[in-house]
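Lab channel / #folding
Pinned by the channel admin:
"Please post every new chain as: sequence first, then the structure tokens as a reply. Keep commentary short and put observations after the output so the thread stays searchable."

First post following the new format, from NK:
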Amino acid sequence: MKAQYAPEYNEGLKINLNDKDDYYIRFMLWNQIWARATEQNPGTLVNGTPQDRSFDIGARRLRMLAMAQLSPRFMIMTHFGINSQTFVGGGAAGSGGTGNYGAGKKPGMFFHDFTSEYTLFPAVNAYTGQRNKFSMTLGAGIHYWMGLSRMTMASTTNFLTLDSPGFNFPNVDQSDQFVRMFGIFAKGKVDKLEYRVSVNKPFATNLVPQEENVAVDNNGSSKPYVGGYFEYQFLDQESNTLPFKVGSYLGQKRVFNIGVGFNAQQDGTMSLQNGQYKSHNIAIMSGDMFIDLPFNVGSKDMSLTSYTVAYRYDYGPNYIRHSGTMNLGSNDPHYDGPRSISGPGNARPMMGTGDIYYSQAGLLLPRLGEQDKVRLQPFVAYTRKNLEALQKGGDYWDFGSNLLIQQHNAKVSFQYSLRPNYIATDRIDGNRGEFIVQFQTFL
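Reply from TO:
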């Protein structure tokens, strides 16, 4: 857990409960503040004003996590905070303001995770100190061990790019609670193979299909949702104490992993077929590869980070979801030009039945001097979406760099992103851009 963070933080905010340091309480706090310049989709109002371009500052994440190791086998973890508060949205219901406009004020904090777990077969032999070939821990709660892909369980404190692409969370805030569900999970390792599997109860959805042959979220009695992820770690072994997968180790580990995963639920969506309602299964698969390797150029240390994933999503016929992170926009009723099929603001076709390919790569540049801590890590990411509901595939790009002041504990990230502007399912009218500066602190 410490490998990607500044050494002076050691183990962070930790309270030891015994002399051996194996009974403890650990606290983590982090925030990510965004300043953005966004090209809005055509026909967008921001706070009632038509805007093609906008500037804003908001909170992408304000979080706190506490974990307690209360015995060699028993651990409890809780994780809470807020997400995506802007000056026009993200606030609590009923918050007041001028004109009783408080949609962006006083957001409600909520639990992201709350889990208890018990280790049946420990990873380390308590008597010899040697690693065991097989380990297993069982847990329950509202959890993040959801499977599918490495990025589906990504840590938000050590992304390579500025943020997650969104479609890596296949049911976000539909049948889950911000990527989590109530469930029972098992995690562990078989030599170099890490596994995590879960059986979950999805949150109820009840959208009613409005169009023929277009599936929507309606899971009826909400049957079990199962997930799994299996990852072979060829080089250095990664920690699985917490569910969060590291995005970049900044050259402090030698990692080469290949993984496969799945999510599935019977009767998870519903469509209208010849005037009759028909339920459809959700079946999602992925395969991915993660590389984080340090290397030297002369006397300079550098590192390469790369991640590639391919998703196959099946939610039923022509299922599609449109969304945009921290979207500021609403529809302008007076706009008479071609509109985006995704709606106003920075929305885009996020995910749906079909295939999505995603790849990112970053290069940690050498220090300018031996004593220098500040480093640059430029990166690029590419997404290709081929969705059944769209007759034309879309290409999405992200370009940027991390300015690592104290590794991931204090960093500033810059990213420029391009998204296609769909004005019909078979027509793209150029691209829209978004430039974001993120200020991150983590302890």
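NK: The chain has no helices and 23 strands.
TO: also worth noting, Residues 112 and 443 are 18 Å apart (CA to CA).
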